[in-house]
Amino acid sequence: MPQRPYVIDQMISAKQIAARIEELSDQIAREFAGTDKLVVVGLLRGSFVFIADLVRELDLPVEVDFLEASSYGDGTESSREVRILKDLRGQIEARDVLVVEDIVDTGFTLSHVLHLLKSRKPRKLRTIALLDKPSRREVPMKADWTGFEIPDEFVVGYGIDFAQRNRNLPFIGKVRFTDAEVED
Ligand code: IMP
Ligand code: MG
């Protein structure tokens, strides 16, 4: 199916994101003060820009690892079935762990990932999501820290894609379709 034409309207600027990351990183550093090494787990691929900025603001010894869970495919609707496509490289048993997600939408992805990671018995497991769409939630789930709550809009930029495009935008923008088709 050919891509429908769309434009991107800025919703959250790069400056607003940077300021929020400064605030959040202070709170996270307090929560994990005294840790010998925090394992920061980025959920691929959408969190790669966020985790890069976040760890550089974190005044803690950190190790970075990644986990990839299946998500949307190329559409704008969640598949609801979460599979692990790439697992962590390192062990997290008895470690301090921070899971970094781009967006909590239905909540399926984060709840599945947390269930899995909890079974590995970390010492402390916390979550941070850059964006949260609370109105879309289907399973009860709230990250310990959230960058911004947003309405039910499909967003791109700052690592987040629409059909693998627009991850490289420095800001968060919403997708607005410009053709006359009725959305299904
Ligand atoms: P959930 O399992 O429905 O909570 O979906 C979470 C995942 O869906 C996120 O990690 C994103 O990868 C993706 N997602 C949710 N909303 C959007 C969006 O507005 N734009 C792009 N990806 C999204
Ligand atoms: Mg994702």
Describe this structure in words.
The protein is an alpha/beta fold and 184 residues long. The chain has a single domain (14-152), classed as Rossmann fold (3-Layer(aba) Sandwich). The protein is built from three helices and nine strands. It has helices at 14-31, 48-57, 108-118, and strands at residues 6-12, 38-44, 62-69, 84-86, 96-104, 124-132, 145-149, 155-156, 172-177. It has a six-stranded mixed β-sheet, with helices on both faces. It has a three-stranded antiparallel β-sheet with strand order 1-9-8. Helix 2 links the parallel strand 2 (38-44) and strand 3. It is globular. It starts with 5 loop residues before the first strand and ends in a 7-residue tail after the last strand. 30% of the residues are buried. It binds inosinic acid and magnesium ion. The site of inosinic acid has 16 residues, from strand 5 and helix 3. Inosinic acid is lined by residues 46, 71-72, 78, 101-109, 154-155, 160.
